[in-house]
Amino acid sequence: MPLPRRAAATIVLAALAVVVALLAGFSLLDPFHLRHARWFSLALIAVAIVLVTATFAVPVRGFLRGFVVALGVVAVAGWGAVVWVAVGFATENAELSTVVDGGRRLVVLEGGPHAADRVISVVVRSGGGPFEQQSVVYQGRAGGPGVTDAHFERDAVLVQAGPCRYRSVVDDLTLEVRPVHAPLAATSC
To answer: Which residues contact 42 (CB under 8 A, 6 or more apart)?
Structure first.
């Protein structure tokens, strides 16, 4: 005997909600170091809220359906507010220099416009568009030395900051950097 239409729709919506929730969790883990992973996560969480709301709204009727939809609208609006505040804190760093090696780029960045002191970092990037990858290689400290040299050497990245030289290995697939260098003080290596 086939399922009633509302029950079938509820099952499909619940399955979609589970799939989207799993994708959101995967994007939060970010095993491929996607530069724009936070946007995927934020969007997938909003879609999951809508799907969960629809899952609970479909099988009920009348006042209860309106109540469930109103809760969903409040949840989506609340999530939108959280995203809006988070985007307000996100800053885009200024690119000081770029070294290209095949499909990879080594980019020296200077802290965003809200940074009180100049902070330099070095990231390795690969690919382009929404699936561009990015991993931090070196994260300087406020008042620390600038990066005087950054270049690729086979599967490694070499960074010179003041008197200190740092070497990291980069995985070609995931763009995982080992180790990530972050001196404890501006004057230490």
So the answer is: 83, 86
